[in-house]
């Protein structure tokens, strides 16, 4: 069975972004909908809504606007890969191509923190990206994946960790 080549989305970011949240590669539902975190069981939008004060069921463009207003950028580490299904564990490591982070950081020079939405995003970034970028002033933190596949923590536990991390960035935004 041939694995399909998957392509990520463009970053959601403006020039004021101070925090970059990185996933690995959108899942099947997200790719089909052309929207980050489209799987209704993924807690990403629910957590962001709780932390930033917007309706998690708002239109996709309104949710993206809320992130930008909070100076949060959203992207994926992988530009392309092959994978059957949606699980990070099914990504063919030999097929990985990463996004152009050198250009991203050059054009988004206010980024001072990167949050990894799960272990795969962090490991792929540290292996494939970190050796090629100069981001001395940027701090990195892996957070628990918001994916429904990461069931070892409850929603409340994930929310607590994400809230603590967001507060630690001190973005002058009450959460």
Summarize the structure.
With 175 residues, this protein is α/β, with parallel strands linked by helices. It has a single domain (5-172), classed as Uracil-DNA Glycosylase, subunit E (3-Layer(aba) Sandwich), CATH 3.40.470. The chain has helices at residues 28-33, 44-52, 60-69, 101-107, 119-129, 155-169; strands at 5-7, 19-23, 72-76, 78-82, 97-98, 113-117, 139-143.
Which key terms come to mind for this protein?
single chain, alpha/beta, Uracil-DNA Glycosylase, subunit E, 4-stranded parallel sheet, globular
Instruction: Report the structural category.
Output: alpha/beta
Percent range for β-strand residues: 15-25%
Per CATH, the superfamily is Uracil-DNA glycosylase-like domain
Helix content: 25-40%
User: What's the structural domain tally?
Assistant: 1
Largest sheet: 4 strands, parallel
- Under CATH, the topology can be stated as Uracil-DNA Glycosylase, subunit E
Oligomer: single chain
Count of separate DSSP helical elements: 6
* CATH-derived architecture: 3-Layer(aba) Sandwich
Main-sheet strand order equals 3-2-6-7
Tell me, rounded to a whole number, the average pLDDT.
88
Order of helical and strand elements: EEHHHEEEHEHEH
CATH class placement: Alpha Beta
Measure the end-to-end span.
47 Å
Shape: globular
Q: Give the tally of β-strands.
A: 7
- Uncertain runs are 171-175
Alpha-carbon Rg, integer: 15 Å
Domain Uracil-DNA glycosylase-like: 10-166
Protein name: G/U mismatch-specific uracil-DNA glycosylase
Organism: Methylobacter tundripaludum
InterPro entries: Hypoxan-DNA_Glyclase (IPR026353), Uracil-DNA_glycosylase-like (IPR005122), Uracil-DNA_glycosylase-like_sf (IPR036895)
């Amino acid at each position: 069975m041939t694995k399909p080549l998957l392509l990520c989305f463009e970053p959601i970011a403006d020039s004021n972004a101070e925090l970059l949240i990185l996933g690995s590669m959108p899942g099947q539902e997200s790719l089909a909908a052309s929207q980050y975190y489209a799987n209704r069981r993924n807690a990403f939008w629910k957590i962001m809504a709780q932390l930033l004060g917007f309706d998690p069921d708002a239109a996709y463009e309104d949710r993206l606007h809320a992130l930008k207003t909070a100076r949060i950028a959203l992207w994926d580490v992988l530009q392309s890969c092959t994978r059957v299904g949606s699980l990070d564990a099914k990504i063919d490591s030999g097929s990985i191509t990463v996004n152009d982070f050198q250009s991203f950081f050059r054009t988004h020079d206010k980024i001072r923190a990167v949050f990894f939405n799960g272990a795969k995003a962090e490991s792929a970034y540290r292996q494939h990206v970190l050796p090629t970028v100069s981001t001395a002033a940027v701090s990195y933190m892996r957070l628990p994946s918001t994916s429904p596949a990461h069931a070892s923590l409850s929603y409340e536990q994930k929310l607590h960790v994400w809230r603590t991390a967001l507060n630690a960035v001190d973005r002058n935004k009450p959460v």
